[in-house]
Specification:
The chain has 251 residues and is an alpha/beta fold. The chain has one domain (29-250): Purple Acid Phosphatase, chain A, domain 2 (4-Layer Sandwich). Helices cover 37% and strands 19% of the residues. The chain contains eleven helices and ten strands. It has helices at residues 3-7, 33-49, 70-83, 92-100, 107-110, 115-121, 132-145, 148-155, 184-189, 192-195, 228-231, and strands at 21-26, 54-59, 86-88, 160-163, 166-169, 204-207, 216-217, 221-223, 233-240, 243-250. α3 links the parallel β2 (54-59) and β3. The longest helix is centred in the first third of the chain and has 17 residues, at 33-49. The protein starts with a helix and ends with a strand. Mean pLDDT is 94; it is low at 1-7.
């Protein structure tokens, strides 16, 4: 009798999504409407070739800033929600935009995260270093120019989504805290403690926020932020049963 075989641990269970469900999770877009539209075309082609009962589109936040076409990205996502089962999560950049509408003074901080291209995408003409009076004017003018559906979209974004053995959040989660008790600050901003942790989070966390040249697959997390605004590379992970396949759109 092979005693070693008796005590050998079973192989770890692969993360799965429910039967009949397929998830298309897309990383940080950052104003690259061209890449987003091309990704829609790729996903639609995949669905036409491989129909499934319940396809879910998940976007992990950071739709705006840095890239040139933030307003158009929001338009595309709103239209996608009208024709597909779509979950759009909140990223830290969306928080800045919403806060700016009521707190013009944060513009000097938001500008470090790529605010000016977003303002330009809504037809504003900010200076490179707006003083207080201009900050107030820009906030008022942005509120006037933004379509109501854009404001409604941004104000209703959830922080998390869960399906099967996967948990979706913009930045990640804090180790040692149950998923249902994660704080907004960690879900939107965490990096080091999350990225360096090798233990289980309870589910496989699919996230963005930390740009990489390629998607990074770990036993406890999948990073799908490939720095679209700078690299011209937008990544989607397709989760189907226990399979993980990647679609990458480049320009």
């Amino acid at each position: 009798m092979d005693i070693m075989r008796l005590f050998r641990s079973p192989p770890p269970k692969k993360a799965t999504v429910p039967e009949g469900t397929r998830i298309y999770a897309v990383g940080d877009i950052h104003g690259r409407a061209d890449l987003l539209q091309a990704m829609f075309d790729r996903v639609d082609a995949d669905l036409a070739q491989r129909p499934i009962e319940r396809p879910i589109h998940v976007f992990v936040g950071d739709y705006i800033d840095r890239g040139p076409r933030s307003a158009e990205v929001i338009d595309l996502l709103i239209r996608r929600q009208q024709t597909h089962l779509t979950v759009c999560l909140k990223g830290n950049h969306e928080v800045y935009l919403c806060d700016f509408l009521d707190q013009p003074e944060i513009l000097h901080h938001w500008a470090h995260y790529g605010a000016l291209p977003t303002l330009l995408s809504y037809g504003l003409q900010p200076s490179l270093n707006p003083a207080t009076e201009e900050q107030i004017s820009l906030s008022w003018e942005l509120k006037r120019r933004m379509p109501r559906e854009h404001i409604a979209f941004l104000s209703s974004l959830p922080l998390t989504f869960s399906c099967g053995d996967y948990f979706f959040a913009h930045a990640g989660v804090r180790p040692g805290i149950p998923l249902e008790y994660q704080t907004p600050d960690d879900l939107l901003w965490i990096r080091g403690e999350f990225l360096n942790y090798e233990g289980s989070f309870g589910k496989v966390v699919v996230h963005g926020h930390t740009p990489m040249m390629e998607a990074a697959v770990h036993k406890n997390r999948i990073n799908i932020d490939t720095g679209a605004y700078a690299t011209g590379k937008l990544t989607c992970v397709v989760l189907d049963r226990d399979q993980q396949v990647f679609i990458q759109q480049t320009r």
